[in-house]
Amino acid sequence: LNLPSRPAKLTTTSGYWELDFTSPITIIGAALIYHNLDAGLDVTLEGGLGSPLTFSQAITIPSPWENDWTISPWVLFPGGAETLNNIRLSINAANSQPVQVGRLLLLTALRDMENDVRWGVVEEEEQGQIEHATEAGVETLYELFGPRRSFTGELALMNTEASELITLYRSARNRILPWLLIPDEGVNDAWFVR
């Protein structure tokens, strides 16, 4: 199954995954979701229309948060869209542990809501936990994997932007299908959200 709880793994600290498509696809960028890559690690997305691979784009791996949860990096190709039928995600240097990636998202388009996020926006983070208390009131806490982040606010949308948001909502089947959110284009932190 293609679940973040079942990441693609290498048994080594470097290496690559290669995707071969039967016909070329056109992508404008990529995002790495749920990974265990070290900050600053040499990671590239490479591709071509056969062999040898003719395209290469570095992916900057940001430092994790204070709770060691890794941030999901994203990149747009500076030269614009690339049409490729062979794509390789390469880990070119040694990671501190065997490599895992939950998802590699290949971006074919971005929706820009062209909006004005109004005052009052709140970004929240909640860390899940399991609590067991004894009869004497002694608590044992277990951390559930990863923080849950939310972004709440009011958007000033005109009719065209409102229809874009409605289209996104419908194409995601309301809350059924996840999608990529980039809250701030100046920050290398993509959110895989519902």
Structure description:
- There is one protein chain.
- The chain has 194 residues and is mainly β.
- The protein has one helix at 159-171; strands spanning 8-9, 15-27, 29-35, 43-48, 55-59, 74-76, 82-91, 100-107, 116-117, 122-133, 139-152, 155-156, 179-181, 191-193.
- The strands form five sheets. It has a four-stranded antiparallel β-sheet, with no helix packed on it.
- β4 (43-48) and β5 form a beta hairpin.
- The relative contact order is 0.21.
- The model has no long low-confidence stretch (mean pLDDT 88).
Overall pLDDT, averaged?
88
Task: Give the biggest beta sheet.
Answer: 4 strands, antiparallel
Shape, per Cα inertia axes: globular
Structural class: mainly beta
Question: Percent of residues in helical segments?
Answer: under 10%
H/E element order: EEEEEEEEEEEEHEE
Sheet-strand content, in percent, reads over 45%
Radius of gyration: 19 Å
Helix segment tally? 1
Low-confidence stretches: none
Topology, number of strands: 14
Strand order of the largest sheet: 1-8-3-6
Whole-Å distance between the termini? 19 Å
